[in-house]
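Sample entry (489 residues):
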Amino acid sequence: MKLKLFVVSLVVLLSFSIAFAQEDTLTVPPIPPDSALLPAAVTGLVAKDTDNDHGHAITLKWQPSADDGAGRQSVAMYEVFRWVPDLMTRIPALRDTLEYLKLRTGDGWSPPEPGSRTDSIHNVFASLDDAQLEERKESLEQTISQAIRDLPAAHAAYPEDGDWQQVAVAPAGSATAADVGTKEKDTPDYLPDYSDFYYRVDAVTADPAIRTASEIVGPVQSYGQWFNKGRLAVSVFVLIFGLLTIFFVQHARRGADLYVRPMAGIEAVDDAIGRATEMGRPILYVLGLGTADMIATIASFTILGRVARRVAEYQTKLIVPAYEPVVMAVAQEVVKTAYYDAGRPDDYDEDIVFFVTSLQFAYVAAVNGLMLRELPATNVYMGKFFAESLLLAETGAVAGSIQIAGTDEIAQIPFFIVACDYTLIGEELYAASAYLGREPILLGSLKAQDWAKAGVIALAVAGLALSNLAVAYDWSWASSIVDFFRVVD
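Predicted structure, serialized as C-alpha cells:
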C-alpha cells in the first residue's frame, strides 16, 4: 500500500513538473523583430550648436531613411535621443524636495494631499522640526548648486553613469530637429553650455518597437553668440541713424536753422492765448493722466513751458490741474522757470499748478467742474489720455473754449479730432516739443527721424521692385539684396 502511495505521489509530482516546464517554455522573452522589417537608418547625422542664439540649443541634420517616402514607406517618425548623465536626472528630484522645504518653512503651510507627489517627500521630513528643516534646506541648496556646476564633468564621463533620453520628435519626411533648452539653471529644461552632448536619431515605424538607431554623433557643445547675424540689417540701420542724429545735433548746436514743418495746432497757441487775454478769461492746461517718466508727459512739459511764458508776457491767468503728484512738482518748476524767463517772476503764483486727485474719473469730474465755473477761453490737452478724453473735450466745447489737443494714444485721437479745434496726431506731439523748445538735441533727433523715415520708404519701394525683378528675370543678386534686409527672430 505504501508503495502504491509513493508511486502515485511521484506521478503527480512529475505531472506538475512537466506542466511547469511547459508553462516556462510559453513565457519566453520577446523575439527581436525580423531584420527584414527594420527600416533603414538615417545617414549623415550632424549635430552642431544652433546659430544666432543665446546658447543652450543644438541643431541636428540628417539624410532621411531610405524607407521614408520610398520602398516600404515604413518610417512614421524620427525620435531624437540625447545621452543624459544620471546626475542631470537627479537634479529635478532635488529641486522638488527643495521646493517642499521652502513651503514647509514658509507661511500658510498645509500638509499635502495623501498620495500626491509632495506627500511622499513629506513622509520623509515629517518628523523634523523647523531648525532641522532650515538646515536641510540650506544643505540642499548647496547640493543643487554643486550638481549644476558638475554637469559638464558628468557629460564628459560618457558613456558611464547615464542613459539615453528622448529630446525631440520629427515627423516622417523631416531632415532636421532641434534640442532647445533654457538658460535658467533652476528650470527642468536647463541645458548647460560647454558640455559634451551625444545624440542619435531613431527611424521609427508605426510599431514603436520596430525602429533602427543611427550612428552616435558627438561630442558637441552649445554656446551663445555675441551677435545675431540675422539682424545685421538692423545693426546697420541703427548705426546710420546714430550717425545722422549726431550730425544734426551738432549742426543745430552750431546755430543752423533746421526746418521743422509748421503745425496748425502749435501755430494756434499764440492766437488762443491772445484771445484769452482779450476776453479776460483764463487758459486751462491739462497734462493728462500720464506719469512723469512717460514720453508724452515729458513732451507736454516742453509745450507747457512755451504756453506759460506767453501767459506771463500777456499777464493772463493760467490754470494747471495735476493728476499725479510728481507731475505736479515738475510742472510747478516748469511754470516758475517760464515766468522767470519772461521777466515776470513776481507774477508767478504757486497755485497755478495744483494737485486734484489720482482717481481717473474723479479727476475728470473736478476738471469739468472747473471748466464750467471758470469758462476758460482756451483749453490745452497735451499728454497721455485714456477714456476721459471725450468727457474733457465735450465739456470744453459746451463751455465755448478753443481747444488744442495732442496725444500719442491712438485710441483717443479720434475723440480729440471731432471735439477739438486743433489736434496733434501721434508723434506730432513730440515734434511740437522740438518745434517750440528749439533745443539742439530735440531738433537734431527730429531731423534724424525724418531722414530715417525717408530712407525706410525708399528702401521699401526699392525692395518691392527688386523682389519682382528677381522673380521675373531670375536675378540672384537682387534676391541677395532683398534677403539682406530680411529680419529673423
